[in-house]
Amino acid sequence: MAAPNKGRRQAGSPGRPGRTLALFLIAMVALTGGMFWSGHVTPRLGIDLAGGTSITLQAKNTPGKPNAINKTNMDTAVSIIERRVNGLGVSEAEVQTQGDENIIVNIPRGTNEKQAREQVGTTAQLYFRPVLTVAAGSPTTPQPSGSGSPSASPSSSTSASTGDKEGDKADGADSTASPKASATSQGRAVTDALKADASPSPDASDKSSDKKNESPAPSASASSDPATAALEKKFTELDCTKKTARTEVNQSSAPKDTIVACGQNSGGEWEKYVLGPAELEGTDVDDAKGVLDQQRGMWIVTMDFTGAGTKKFQSITGKLSQQQAPMNQFAIVLDGNVVSAPSVSQTLGSSAEISGSFTQQSAQDLGNILSYGALPLTFQEQSVTTVTAALGGEQLEAGLIAGAIGLVLVIIYLVAYYRGLSAIAILSLGASGIMTYTIMSLLGPGIGFALNLPAVCGAIVAIGITADSFIVYFERIRDEIREGRTLRPAVERAWPRARRTILVSDFVSFLAAAVLFLVTVGKVQGFAFTLGLTTLLDVVVVFFFTKPVMTLLARTKFFSSGHPWSGLDPTRLGAKPPLRRTRRVSAPTDPKEA
């Protein structure tokens, strides 16, 4: 017979319960200490418990798309707004449609309410447009000459700050010109730019690329075109120093239109531009984020283009680099305003950057908006209301009372039925409660988790799931005692059977919670998340706390001797001594032996 393998622990052996229990207690103390160290000693509350801000947005048709308000676009807008707000760490924000044209956004108190409010209705329509001409923002200021800007760096990113304008004054511009002369010179600049047709397209032929380097002389007939004349008038009369003018100037423009737009240079002065049709759109941007440029010591927004966007960007920058200022600039236009207008001196690659007077927050906000895409509709803020937590507080109080009553009933049942074993169950419930509370408090600042009423319900349901695991284990131990085994072997032999049952039960609960989390939205996800979290903690507590504690207590006289109040009294459980085979003595067949 082969000798038993001494290096392998036999199934059902006690192992080292003290070490396992010590590791669990160290982890619990570390989590609790981390909670106090982080300063977040209470879980973050959702809008139904803490109150917050409710924003109502009304959809407006996009220029050029009169029938854009439909269910598909509204659902897309809800998804984008939700991702934007969640990108700020407001995971419990509620975004839902109301009627055919309205979207309701609820943001809990204590989160980035101000940032979220600024971003929820921002359309974030991003376009890259070639610059045809540029002038000072006032309707009577002479056009700055040169209109240069810092050139793009040799790398595949462009500097997006327009900078101070330098160089000689443009023809016809005079610093002492009258307002009328200024308007005339600005109008002529628009005409010259349109005649030159300096709006290259990535799909243009080489022949047209060669022709665009020529500078046709201005002609009086150019401004006789009604569209050109209207653009001249709009450009000369535009006052970019007025907010209303900047907001309304491009409300009816389409991506393929030649437009007039406003922007600020690095000195904070307003400028106005004539821009050609869009060559790239926000959909060509694959990723964007705000980062700190260590060399320049300033915050910038970096953008990485998609495969198709990279080809378009290389084509347009290659053609712009052959033009003279200001026609070698491209404008980065966000929601109708020029964010920056860098000049291009060579063909650029797969990324670009926007630089300017960004703070850390504004750079990260812009990167967040661009990363999650543009809204398919334009939204107008209809109302902003403050939501109080009075109703939610009453419901929370009622829920906590119900949970407390349920917990007391469970404890009474455990004490009445399991007696001494109930102490192990109560200690395990306490350990599970501490772990749940600590992790919820840490998840608030960590991932933006906020506790709402459905999440509280999930935590109350978890009391039953955790108690069920203890009952399964205790009943397996009792079954072993009924078969005639003493306590210590019964504890170890019962564990493998109980363990399988507990794992299968918790797996089903966790699977239900995961499916519910994936197929639902809003508050129901809070219930599913809490249910899944507490189910995982149930496995941890049973394996690393309940089982080691049971093994250690089985060595004490109170439990091992089967005390009537231990809950493991063999007599009370109806245990029978093990059956033993007796040897039968056959009757003698020989009469003499009898």
Please give a quick description of this structure.
The protein is of the alpha+beta class and 594 residues long.
Profile the largest sheet.
6 strands, antiparallel
Q: Any low-confidence stretches, pLDDT <50, length ≥5?
A: 6-13, 141-183, 198-223
Helices and strands, in order, run as HHEHEEHEHHHHEEEEEHEEEHEHHHHHHH
Global morphology: elongated
Rounded Rg: 37 Å
Count of extended strands? 13
* Number of continuous helical runs: 17
Tell me the helix content: 40-55%
Structural class: alpha+beta
Strand content: 15-25%
Mean model confidence by pLDDT: 74
For the termini, the CA-CA separation is 43 Å
Structural features, described:
It is a single chain. This protein is an alpha+beta fold and 594 residues long. 46% of the residues lie in helices and 15% in strands. It has 17 helices and 13 strands. The two termini are 43 Å apart.
Quick tags:
594 residues; alpha+beta; six-stranded antiparallel β-sheet; 17 helices; 13 strands; 46% helix
